[in-house]
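Query structure, 70 tokens:
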């Protein structure tokens, strides 16, 4: 095997490794994206829960105020 063939083989190996690393990086990015979407949904649920809690607290305060007004 001549030097030209060795350099060509090495170049092909590096290209293949670069493709594999790029694919792995894409897969990891996709996996990291999924939990982020779940966190967004959790945040939305917590915000809904907080709004409901706030509404119930206001209703309770109104009832309490009405008791003292009467």
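Result returned for the query:
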């Amino acid at each position: 095997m001549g030097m030209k063939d060795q350099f060509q083989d090495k170049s092909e190996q590096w290209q293949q490794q670069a493709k594999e690393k790029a694919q792995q990086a894409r897969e990891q990015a996709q996996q990291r994206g999924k939990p982020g979407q779940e966190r967004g949904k959790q945040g939305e649920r917590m915000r809904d829960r907080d709004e409901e809690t706030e509404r119930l607290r206001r209703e309770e305060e109104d009832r309490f105020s009405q008791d003292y007004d009467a």
